[in-house]
Amino acid sequence: MKNDATALIRIQNVEIEEIMVGNNRFSDDVWDLSDYVSNRTIARCFKTVRFSYIKNENIKMVVKQYAYYKLGKIRPRTVSQYVTNLSTFIQYCEAHNVDSLRELNFELLMDYLQWIKKEKGFKEVTRYAILTIISEIIRIGQIKGWDVTHDTFFSQYMVRELINSRNKFADSTKTKPIPTDVLNKILYFALEKEKRIPTRAGIVIQSQTGLRINEVLSIQEGCLSTTNDGYTFLEVEISKTEKGEPIKHKVYANELVVKCVNELSKYTKHLREKSGLKELFLVNARGIITNSKSSCWTSKRLRPFIRRWDIRDKEGNLYHLQSHQFRATFVRELIKQNVPLSHIMKQFSHVSIEMTMHYLTLQEKEIKEIYADMVLSPDSKIAGMRAAEIKNELNNEFKGKTPNEIDDIISDLAESMSFNPLPNGICLYDFRRGNCTDGDGCFFYNCPNYITEVKFYPILKKELDLIELEMKRLKKLGRERDWQRQYVKHTHLKRLVDELEAQKNG
Fold it and tell me: If 141 and its partner were Cys, which of 91, 146, 284, 401 is the partner (CB 3.0–4.6 Å)?
């Protein structure tokens, strides 16, 4: 059986009710998609899409058409969540005798949004998520001819409302890093007091690697490996999407992680021997041995842990810990330690700077301040076309100032300047001026907006060495034009490397 989201929908030359969706027909009120979800840590409820709560057949048909459309584009579990999120909207339609989504209008939508705000108490992020789904159903339905409103003003308003509210809701949708004082308490109790081995192992591994909880729960016997130079790595399954076979990925494992993995391995050995399963986070649930589910981890493990050790925030409330916060916190700590983004990308198996920055989940102000401190601090060792100019201006600004006053200056500059992280430095270009036209690499072409710091020296030096090897190869082959291109790169890069090396050794 092909493990591909597009294979979920097997369109045959039959009536729509007879179309197979997963293991069921389109006409069924439950679609079982479990054969198409490879990750065993996902709870069964997220492997099915349920429509039975929708009593009105006209509305149910539209929701099914929408789910059917989305299954070829996103993960089955996400489709399941979307359909579930529509429950209050369906409830509202039934209570107000809306027999078809064709009857939707501006007044009904406004009334519904007020109802879920005042009567249901839904937060902004939840209201925004529901509005997004409704908007998409209407927009796609108008194109595909579903039984939805054809009111163009309605659809235009929906799009405009989403655009206007996106920035407003953006901060609330971000995963917030754990405050440092709370994190210290969590790690102390996990390492020193917690007796429940799976709970301790999950907390430690997440906090020390930044892995998602479903990735942590996927680890199996033999997941640790040590290189010849003594570094230990943890192998996990990366299953961000449900397409294709799971991807194996290795992340660095420190002594805390190694200790917890070995401890967990001993703890669940008898369960693996009895069940034949290889996972380390096994549980015996009423005589059935199965792997721990990521959907239950926060409620079954993290919240009891917080209550058990009475871990509170600065307001005195029990801290509301979510498993994904460890990921945001891990990246925050790496950045604060000036770890280059290229290293973070490798740890997280990200293929682009943009994706890495997405997972930083930090406030924009905090990111700016961190990078500003790295580049603008009195102790920074920077290189680039504007490095001397920036240093001279800063020295004049800092002259005669106390450390606290210097911190204030850096914070003010962070507010006014652009700091765009790169795997080998920082771009100072202000993108409010439009897109940057230099697509060939900042430092290669002497861009005045590119600044690097001595911490990036190993990356740049390695790049320089590779260019020199390539130049030798091209010279030997007689490829003069290609050699000239590399020579231009080498000229500008060597100047940067030499400048950083002098500061590093001086």
Answer: 146
Kindly write down the DSSP assignment for every residue of 457-493, as one continuous string: HHHHHHHHHHHHHHHHHHHHHT-HHHHHHHHHHHHHH
35 lies in a domain?
yes
The DSSP secondary structure of 133-194, one letter per residue, reads: HHHHHHHHHHHHT-SB---HHHHHHHHHHHHHHHHHHHHHHSPPPPPHHHHHHHHHHHHHT-
Q: Tell me how far CA of residue 503 lies from CA of 90, 155, 448, 451, 494, in angstroms.
A: 65, 59, 20, 14, 14
- Domain range for residue 441? 363-505
15 belongs to a structural domain = yes
pLDDT in tens, 353-386: 333 444 444 445 555 666 666 677 777 888 888 8
Question: Hey, is 378 helix, strand or coil?
Answer: coil
**230 phi-psi bin (left φ>0, alpha ψ -120 to 50, beta other):** left
pLDDT of 319 > 70? The answer is: yes
Q: What is the DSSP string of 84-127?
A: HHTHHHHHHHHHTT---BTT--HHHHHHHHHHHHHTS---HHHH
For the purposes of burial, counting CB atoms within 10 Å of the CB of 366, is it exposed (0-12), middle (13-18) or buried (19 or more)?
Answer: middle
Residue 402: strand, helix, or coil = coil
Pairwise CA distance, residues 238 & 7, whole Å? 21
**C-alpha to C-alpha distances, 138 to 99, 134, 149, 378, 473, nearest whole angstrom:** 15, 6, 7, 56, 58
In a shared domain, residues 33 and 146:
yes
